[in-house]
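All the exercises in this workshop are built on plain-text protein records. A record pairs a protein's sequence with a compact description of its fold. Backbone structure tokens are a discrete shorthand for how the chain folds in space. Once this layout is familiar, the rest of the handout is easier to follow. As an example, a complete record with its sequence and its structure tokens follows.
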Amino acid sequence: MSIDSAQRSDKYFTLLVPATGGLFVRDSSKSPTWQNLTPIVPAGETVIAATIVDQGEPPSNDVHISILTSDGQVFQSACVVTGMYTWPGNCGPFVNNTPPNN
């Protein structure tokens, strides 16, 4: 189980990996505020920890989500959070960023 948060302009995001599994983001600008990201987790992977961070200086339009899986792999995705967007369709596929010799 893990929790992390980030802010981008006037939007606040909380990322949650509940003890029951899955991956969820709370987006202060959406209703309902909690959105399920579990469908975009790589197939066969179980998330045990996750982080979310604002991409950085403007004109950044996205946040980055990194996940750690139960088998020690690290994946990252970028999700657009400007304009009209819908979770999880605003996120790109998770890319494997596992360090060598893992």
About this structure: The mean pLDDT is 92.
